[in-house]
Amino acid sequence: MPGVVRARRRIPRAVLIASCLVAVLLLLPLAFLLLEARQVGWTELSALLFRRVTATLLWNMVQLAVVVTALAAVIGTGAAWCVERSDLPGRRLLAMLLVLPLAIPDFVVAFGWVSVLPAVSGYGGAVLVMTAGLYPLVYLPVAASLRGADPSQEETARTLGLGPWRAFWHVTLRQTRPTILAGCLLVSLALLAEYGAFEILGYQTFTTEIFTEFQAAINAPAACALSLVVVLIGLVVLAGEGALRDRGRVARAAHNSSRAAPRHRLGRWRWPAVGALGSLIAVALGMPIGVIVYWMVRGGSSTLPQSASVANAAGHTVLYSAAAAAVATALAMPVALLAVRSPIRAVRLLERSTYIVQGLPGLVIALALVFFALHYLPFVYQTSGLLIGAYAILFFPLAYVAVRASVMQAPVALEEVARSLGRRPLAVRLRVTLPLIAPGLAAAFCLVFLSAVTELTATLILVPTGVQTLATQFWAFTGNVSYGAAAPYAAAMVAISVVPGILLGRWFDRRPTRSAELS
Amino acid sequence: MARPTGATGKWLMGTALASILMAALSGCGASPGSSRTTLILYNGQHPQTTDSLVTAFEHQTGIQVEVRSNDEDVLADQIKEEGTASPADLIYTENSPALEYLQSTKLLARVPQSTLSRVPAKYNSPASDWVGVSARVSVLVYNTTLLKPSQLPTSVLALADPKWRGLLAIAPGETDFQPIITSIARTYGKTTALKWLEGVGANAQQNRYPDNETITARVNSGQAAIGIINQYYWYRLRAEIGSSQMRSAISYLAPRNPGYVVDVSGAAVLKSSRHQAAADRFLAFLVSRQGQEILAHSDSFEYPLGSGVVTARALRPFASLQPAPLTIADLGDGAEAVALLHQSQLL
Question: Which of A186, B20, B154, B324 is 20 to 30 Å from A501 by CA-CA measure?
């Protein structure tokens, strides 16, 4: 068991210090929330919190999170199995298309449906839009895990007399369970923080209420105090995922399997499966892209003048998002190394504390940075540097998940060989570890990039004054019901995101056993 | 096992470093090194209104204005958080409560008398800390295929009548909704205002939208039959989609009905601004004949308030409006309306 050896390795001090700094950085928004909440008296807070509407909003949030997470898990896992383990026709093309919905911002999808079919709204609309947008967060890691998992366990189960369904249920699903759970965690945290799509769909959750509170009342402390409730829910989700993951520990997938699993024959299910995945892609990808094209063709005239051309806004969006992706990936590295190589309790706590930001509204994180920047680093305020930092904090968990997965796959033995050959530790990290986890870094970069491209609420507060991004211009136009003029900005967001989307698909698509296969 | 991909790793680190450097550089570029004055305007007004005014001002004075647009209440929160370190020189909002809130936190500078005197005093800050720039009026918007003019109510209170169940649209989070609540509370008391909110909330169960733009669009498309908005949203929608696409019309409430409210948009200079003189010039420009003429002709469809300029658009003339006698001080910072919204569970 290599894991046992890993646990005893000494933690390099630099990695430990870097990880602690990252954790502190990521907990800044939480510290800000507590500071603000202290300004609100308990009477005011309880009057705001203990109301009928709070229960309704929490229920809205929970029922959506449960249903969408479950649907995303089923669809993501099912699609991954079809693409990776069956003889589905056209699976290479499907493998690429199934990832791409991740490249379309949820609020663009929501806008797509509502601007053409206003009846798509409320709970049903939210389930549809969010499931279609978020299932790739389960599909991607599960597909990768199915590809890397050792097929011999399933084969053994089959020779012992288990039917194909039971073998799938008892063996394959168990092997991939930690991965499915990690995907579900991202889906549910994303649902907790979602705002733009729900506002367009007219579906109220606790988070949309926080935004409304910010926009309808000038009482930031009260709105911040409400955000603490979201933090609590996020902690419950994290604890739940942690507990389930621990139970599934024995079933951790072996990543160093030496051969590919045989593909199952779909038989008469072949075409129904193609039809199902085709409809999924039509809903998740075809519909929003179709609507964008429709509005672009219908015309872009608007009484609202452009503050920035598509090219100008796209330039800023790419610059900020790429820089944020690089920073978030760099920040994720020490934490992932520490968490994988020294899985002790304190480290796990530190690791999990970094997930909290994922559930926080971007607006709150932005206000936290306004506060800390003006108090401690006034010269960075409203520079692009601070905005990039905000993105890096907001999307750190996404980078972390990808980096951690690849660190887990990088065998520590190779580093030890390099060291025993007399290489200095730093040289070992640069020459051995980094190349080993590079694909994971690329995936982390892409995930953060995709998310940052569409960020709106933190951007409006922290972007350098006078600068427009694609998301802020899209917001300005849709706010004015100028759908035709908004469409090119949405199209640019999608176009920019497609390249990282494809790269991401290819990273998860790559076979860990490729070198073995080639040799 | 992954192939050793040293090249990818290096490329990645290179990209990372390059992007951080670029970011740092562009960050430095954002602070103006030139001697020309650059004003920073926090804009809660509709961008098209602000854009044309800023362009004309820059042209006339040579002073640059950089605009940061966001929701007016978020901007007020942001300025409160920034305090005296705020980079903003000016704030321009759609409604008076955000300005009254900043006034109460002592963050606004006194507006010169010469600027204030361009606008009737009742549309300015009672403490002379901001100046009124333009106004609009609340009206009913209704779908012309679903409703006949004779079916329309003349009092805002009637909108709480159960006969509008499923037909009414509201936007509880919209700042323009709050003056109507305040007005009802001032006229009939808080209990009636609360009952009214509960009534309209129930009637609009299926049609609760984030803002007035959406109410207008949904009434026009027939998803809702009636709503209460500020008149300019209807004119803007018409300018946006064309008269042939309009399936709705607007209607005024009875004279001095509490739902018949004039909302004032205003602007102020921040006390912490290091360009007080230039910022004062911007305020003066907004209410000058030239600035007001821009508003009068623009697609914002608001009523100019200063320098005796009247709208050039085919709106009901401002002088002929008969709104409820609600003052800026009555509206305050909107906290009373928000408390009622909370109590009625609409927020």
Answer: B20
